[in-house]
Amino acid sequence: MPVLLNDHDSDLTLRPGTTKSDIVAYLYRNPEWGYSPKDITESLDIPRGTATTTLKRLYDDDYVGKTDDGYYHALSERDDIRRYVSSLEQAHRLFGHHRDADATPEAPEKQIAEDRTDEELDAELAALEDEIGDSDE
Asked: For residue 133, what pLDDT is reported?
């Protein structure tokens, strides 16, 4: 995927769809709060060990901050990460899921080929192809 060089930070090693990216996005969407590994585990539905390990790595790499009593939080000085999270949100608004995951499409009242044999459908298709062929001339 191409990157806009004005906003590109080669030191930022986040990739959308990864646990690392999901945790960073969660913390930076809620910068006024600090979260324990348990909070992250429950909010993002990831294993506790994964959350703990990933949070430690993010802290060691200066992606997130940590309070003395173990709450992780967004860093106010990381504008590059804020831009990254903003771009994730923009992409989700453009291409995200706009339907409920549980939604099922409505069934049409009448099926297209209902009550017709294969031969009838083939004949109708041939007639339509002939009609298109005649209109091209």
From this structure: 80
